[in-house]
Design goal:
The protein is of the alpha/beta class and about 240 residues long. It contains 8 helices and 8 strands; from the N terminus they run βαβαβαβαβαβαβαβα. It has helices spanning about 15-35, 55-65, 85-100, 120-125, 150-155, 170-180, 195-210, 230-240, and strands at about 5-10, 45-50, 70-75, 105-110, 135-140, 160-165, 185-190, 215-220. The strands form 2 sheets. A 4-stranded parallel beta sheet has the order 2-1-3-4, with helices on both faces. Helix 1 (about 15-35) links the parallel strand 1 and strand 2 (about 45-50). The longest helix is centred in the N-terminal third of the chain and has 19 residues, at about 15-35.
Length: about 240
Amino acid sequence: MSVRSAYLLVAHGSRDPRSQASLHQLGEGVKQSLQSQRDRPLWVKTATLEFGSVPLKQQICNWGQQLTHIDQLVILPLFLLPGTHVRVDIPDVVTTVRQFLPKSLEIEVRSHLGSHPNLFQILRATMAGTDVDRWILLSHGSRYPGGNQPVEALAQQLDAAPAYWSVSPSLRQTVTQMAAHPGLKVGIKPYFLFTGSIIDTISQEVDQLKCDFKHINLTFSSPLEPSAPLVHLIQDLITA
């Protein structure tokens, strides 16, 4: 008899309704994609680590107690970096909720979204066709030991310079280095999942950089956003 699974996609969360809508859209896309390949109902739900109406622990408990017909709850952290949220916060929540859910329900936390090697291809596709000389891959950044190493590797694959929103080197520091070459066309790719308040703030920073460095050309790209390739990548992670 096959294992009956439910899938929970856990994102960071945001107060910005655009980010919430994108998470919902991504969850629906994953559900529809899985549903199209199976002949029975599927249980796919999204949750947030922060800014939810209730804490993540309660979100998991509330749903887990309804899964009386399910053998396995698969949790996928929709995080791009292996930082504190992935390494500490989500595992701690799962450890806590196990005591409140039936022992017959297996809970498995899969590797975070940013660990999938094909994410590079999605990024490269969204950067193709833009007329730039150099790219900057701008990530949120992490202070967790080793948390930024995947960004460094990804930037190298994309022939881009890494920069971070919360740690050094910052976007301004990286642009300043590139500004030594007048006329350079620089593309800034935000390595974030969804448009939201942080992307708005970064966009304002880019506008200021354009004023401060008029002798180079800056282009601001878009974050990943829900897409069919991203849905397929998530499906790959949760069903592997």
